[in-house]
Each structure stands twice: as structure tokens, then as C-alpha cells.
């Protein structure tokens, strides 16, 4: 059996799947650009390193013919539609390639009136997964290289898109590492759990990479950058670090798309997605609410009802 037909051990995903998705994306991107239906398509192009991929805004049919989808296509491309990244896109309708977690981010941005559905042409991907921090040398997705978020993903199949790329292959069951780790942390005594997170936050160097890659950090000036008055200390000190990460986690509660870009970009390997998952779990338990691929106008933390539970008020 040749390498192209060989299955990625533990995942049951053949490299031919990514080839088929790539061809579908290229064909549709070329078509919509040729017809003038969009002014640009946000997707992925091959990187300089073998088996790498980089986000790109393509505006010509020739460029669209080079678009790819591979295990290296990890970036959440919805980021490039936000006000924080204004000026990088031409005017007019924009095409965008979106995995399931990207679609949740797009839906969230629509619900918060940051983007309009009518301004987008969405090429949704039947996504079997992408690689994590440890990439396979041959570019194939394996049990060792698949991203932790993909092990327990529930958004493999796109919804509400204009075009679907690829056919979802059979996905073998993988151990949900994040769920297991979160359960382990939650089982700790409160003091031990607090010490765990304090130790994690103590490593933060306040590079703000987590903020810069998050689609929901779209403010043109972040509150945490202000000095007068200063809400959160900006230097990498324990108190300021803890405040920053708690504020950020609360800010994402009920909004996080689960793309885990914050954790992937963190140079200090702080398990930020565990914190985001815990907040999402809290919203599900308390309000039966979770981020989805369908735009929702208001979440439970940004609306008020007269019959809201007020038992927490002492």
C-alpha cells in the first residue's frame, strides 16, 4: 500500500481525504472569484516548510488554484474578518474557508453584530481534524499529532454554509484528553485547584498572543491596555497575570468557539483551552447554553430576565 493510500494510525483518516477537500475548495474559490461573486477568499496556502500551511487572502483565480486544506490548516480564519484586523480585506463580499470551530466563531461574531451573513460566502469543510502542537513529520494526521480539541470535537459537519467541501470519513474514537484532564483538576480540593491555576498563570509573560489570535478579542483598544485608569496591571506579575486570565475567561464565557488558538499560540504552554472549556461547561450546566454554528442574538450573560435566579445575591 503506498503512502497516499495509507491510513493515519489511530485516526482512520486517509491523506486522500485532504486531497479531495483541497480540490473542492480550489474549484469553488476559482468559480466564485471568476463570477465576481466575491472580491477575495480567505483560506490557506502552502507554507515555506514542507507540510506547513499559512492563512492567506487570495484575490485572483490563479491564487485560488493554490489553496489547500491539510492537517496543518490550524488557524481560525474568522479572525481576519474582525475590526481588530480591519484594512487587510478589499471591499465587497468575502469568501472564507471554515472548519467547524471556525463556523462557531463566525456565528458568534454575527450574533454580536460584528459581521453580516450577507457579506460572506462560506466554504464549509467536513473536517476530520487538524494537527496539534506536535506535527507529524510526513504531514499525515496520526493519533500522536492530532490536536487535543479534535479528539472530542462535535462540529465536524458544517451547517448554514454556501458550499460544503469534502466528505467526512469514518472517525475512529480517540481518548478525550482534555475532558480527562479537566475532570482531574475539578476533582482536586479547592485550595489545590487554586494553587494549580496560580502556578499556570505565574508562567505568563503577557505577550498577549492569546488575545491577538482570538476572534472575540475584536476591540480596537483593549481595556487591559489602558493605563488611566488601569484595570489590569500590564507587567508579567502574579497578581496582574491572574487578573488578566480570569477577566479573559469570563469575557469568553458562552462565546468561546473552542478553536484553541489561544493555547496553541501561547509560548509558555498554559492550558488556556481547559479554562475556556470549564467556563463553557459552567454555562451549559447553569443556563443550558452553548456556542453553536447558528447565530444567537444574546447569550445568558448579556441579557436580563425578570425571572432570573437571584439566589446567589447575599
Q: Characterize the biggest β-sheet.
A: 5 strands, mixed
Number of separate domains: 2
State the secondary-structure class. Answer: alpha/beta
Report Rg. Answer: 20 Å
Could you characterize what this model shows?
This protein has helices at 15-34, 61-64, 100-111, 148-151, 177-186, 190-202, 209-212, 238-252, 261-265, 272-287; strands at 40-46, 53-58, 94-98, 120-125, 163-165. Mean pLDDT is 87; it is low at 1-10. It folds into two domains: 15-165, no CATH class; 177-301, no CATH class. Helix content is 33%, strand content 9%. With 314 residues, the protein is of the alpha/beta class. α5 (177-186) crosses α10 (272-287) and α6 (190-202) crosses α8 (238-252). Strands 2-1-3-4-5 form a five-stranded mixed sheet. α4 links the parallel β4 and β5 (163-165).
Helix-strand layout with pairing:
Elements: H1 15-34, E1 40-46, E2 53-58, H2 61-64, E3 94-98, H3 100-111, E4 120-125, H4 148-151, E5 163-165, H5 177-186, H6 190-202, H7 209-212, H8 238-252, H9 261-265, H10 272-287
Offer a quick outline of the entry.
With 314 residues, this protein is an alpha/beta fold. It has 10 helices and 5 strands; from the N terminus they run H-E-E-H-E-H-E-H-E-H-H-H-H-H-H. It has helices at 15-34, 61-64, 100-111, 148-151, 177-186, 190-202, 209-212, 238-252, 261-265, 272-287, and strands at 40-46, 53-58, 94-98, 120-125, 163-165.
Amino acid at each position: 500500500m503506498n503512502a497516499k493510500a495509507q491510513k493515519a494510525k489511530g485516526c482512520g483518516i486517509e491523506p486522500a481525504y485532504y486531497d479531495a477537500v483541497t480540490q473542492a475548495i480550489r474549484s469553488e474559490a476559482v468559480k466564485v472569484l471568476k463570477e465576481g461573486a466575491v472580491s477575495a477568499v480567505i483560506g490557506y496556502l502552502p507554507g515555506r516548510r514542507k507540510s506547513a500551511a499559512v492563512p492567506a487572502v487570495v484575490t485572483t483565480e490563479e491564487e485560488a488554484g493554490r489553496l489547500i486544506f491539510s492537517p496543518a490548516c490550524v488557524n481560525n480564519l474568522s479572525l481576519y474578518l474582525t475590526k481588530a484586523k480591519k484594512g487587510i480585506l478589499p471591499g465587497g463580499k468575502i469568501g472564507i474557508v471554515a472548519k467547524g470551530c471556525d463556523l462557531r466563531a463566525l456565528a458568534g461574531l454575527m450574533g454580536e453584530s460584528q459581521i453580516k451573513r450577507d457579506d460572506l460566502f462560506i466554504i464549509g469543510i467536513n473536517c476530520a481534524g487538524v494537527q496539534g502542537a506536535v506535527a507529524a513529520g510526513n504531514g499525515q494526521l496520526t493519533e500522536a499529532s492530532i490536536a487535543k480539541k479534535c479528539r472530542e470535537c462535535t462540529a465536524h459537519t458544517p451547517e448554514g454554509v454556501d458550499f460544503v467541501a469534502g466528505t467526512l470519513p469514518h472517525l475512529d474514537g480517540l481518548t478525550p484528553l482534555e475532558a480527562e484532564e479537566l475532570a482531574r483538576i475539578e476533582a482536586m480540593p479547592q485550595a489545590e485547584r487554586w494553587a494549580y491555576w496560580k502556578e499556570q498563570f505565574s508562567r505568563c509573560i503577557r505577550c498577549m498572543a492569546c488575545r491577538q489570535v482570538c476572534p472575540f478579542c475584536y476591540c480596537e483598544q483593549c481595556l487591559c491596555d489602558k493605563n488611566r485608569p488601569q484595570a489590569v496591571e500590564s507587567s508579567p506579575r502574579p497578581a496582574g497575570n491572574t487578573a488578566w486570565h480570569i477577566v479573559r475567561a469570563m469575557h469568553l464565557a458562552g462565546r468561546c468557539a473552542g478553536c484553541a488558538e489561544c493555547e496553541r499560540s501561547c509560548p509558555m504552554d498554559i492550558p488556556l483551552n481547559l479554562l475556556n472549556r470549564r467556563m463553557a461547561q459552567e454555562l451549559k450546566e447553569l443556563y443550558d447554553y452553548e456556542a453553536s454554528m447558528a447565530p444567537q442574538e444574546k447569550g445568558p450573560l448579556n441579557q436580563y430576565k425578570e425571572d432570573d435566579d437571584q439566589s446567589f445575591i447575599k
